[in-house]
Structures
1.
Amino acid sequence: MKRAIAAALLAGLAAPVAAQDTDWVQVRREWNAPVTPFTIAGNVHYVGTAGIAAYLITTPEGHILIDGAMEESVPQIVANIARLGFRLDDVKILLINHAHWDHSGGLAELKRLTGARLLASAADMPALEAGSVDYRSDLGPFPKVRVDALLSDGEAITLGGTTLTTHLTPGHTKGCTSWTMRAGGHDIIFACSITVADQPLVKGKGYDAAVSDFRATFAKLKAIKADVFLNFHPTGFDMEAKRKRLVAGDKNAFVDPGELRRRAKAAEAGFEKELAAQKR
Ligand SMILES: [Zn+2]
């Protein structure tokens, strides 16, 4: 029954066409495979799917949920929050790392279900509220969602004794946003996507500041200190391998103080290579 509903839902969704030869129905199905929710460190929990992350940060005064994943991921996120023993209507703040369908697609429904306020960067707000990115006609649409307040660089988000610091890290989108916080004795970063992902980089084709934004973001990320690197595609930080080690008893499975710098440097090299290829 559940499978039939998922298949029907998928069939009715407009497939994004970022890469012409990608079978997006299949990719979405794989990305939406379930993951047993788990605690990463302190009050930071994973409530996303196999391929798209969502993080729940719990406090005595309500919770913060980062990202809505895909439209079809919402029932899993809802179930995962309950499975960890938390209440959906205790989610007070919704955040979003960037306005692309695979991360923003579930936000509208999650906002309706929780009644939480959505905070987002000014530069990604238009895409969130339009349900599409005006400079990326190759990307699929997603349900429009209203932004309740704007986040600026360095802004602190505090709830129930927990504080997240906002870092604007544009490039992947105009308003790509990362956060840092302290949990379980560790400095944690929720890093926005830093891949090019088929984005046009040459002037006039994507958004004009993309190249300078990417370069500034790599420099910024390399200067941040973090023991735990998290981002919004689990394959981007080997989540499954770490989760297995965590479940097996290694409570520091996610701790790797060199990972942020390593990932940023690798992404920077990939970006420069892609830029050179696009200029040819
Ligand atoms: Zn993206």
2.
Amino acid sequence: MRMSTEIESLWFSPFRQIGEIQVIHVDLTPHEAREQYALEWLDKEELARWQRYLPDRPRREFALCRAVLRYSLCRRLGCENKQLSIVPATHGKPHALINGQPAPTSFNVSHSGYHGLIAFAQGQQRLGVDVEARSRRRDFDGIAEMVFGPNEREEIASASGLAKARLFFRFWTLKEALVKAFGTGLSIDLTAFEIPQDIRHGAERSIFQFPGQDRTLWELRDLSTNGYAAAIATEVPHA
Ligand SMILES: CC(C)(COP(=O)(O)OP(=O)(O)OC[C@H]1O[C@@H](n2cnc3c(N)ncnc32)[C@H](O)[C@@H]1OP(=O)(O)O)[C@@H](O)C(=O)NCCC(=O)NCCS
């Protein structure tokens, strides 16, 4: 299957390398030719899913990110696209199979507005990534009641204007990266745990442990840029 250098460089690019974890950025600005080309990479189930999305934005986000995911997995794993299937686990977290067998790589995808991020790790290391285009017109305090713990809510409530929006999306992406790494997504109570204080207050990285869960440690990193909020959570391998 072809993929010209032109399409590759316009469409996605390296974003961050953290040890062996690679994060790429996918450009999701509307682009008819790229979207058509992306469809060539999707399998039958994915095309059917693409057709079920009626609005343009989720259609585009899904097609472009899924095509880049497939292309990148083929390159990492040295397989052909037709050997690859991407299947959901219990709460919907996708993983890759090659000829029906688990692929020796893990990944996670996030898309928001014109930005997609895809993170890859070696082996079965669990990870979650989240990106959110920031907007200022939202009831941040109202939403915070539903998704944040008491300290997180208080810090958001005492900020205003742009600082409030930044804080909200910082906390939100960090929290979502964690539940995506964990694999449950939003099916768990987000108010039942808080993002560590150091990273809430500006540190770039921190270590987290889910209260009441096993002893797995998670490394959290803020990946935000001026254009969007983003975060990644990765399982810390046992020593
Ligand atoms: C996963 C979830 C957190 C996504 O949040 P979002 O901000 O809307 O979307 P994002 O763009 O950040 O992430 C979407 C991507 O996360 C991945 N994903 C889906 N479910 C996931 C999960 N449980 N854990 C981690 N990643 C997941 C997918 O790759 C998806 O993109 P794709 O479908 O285009 O490949 C949210 O939809 C959720 O909690 N879903 C689980 C609901 C559930 O329990 N479903 C059970 C029935 S399947």
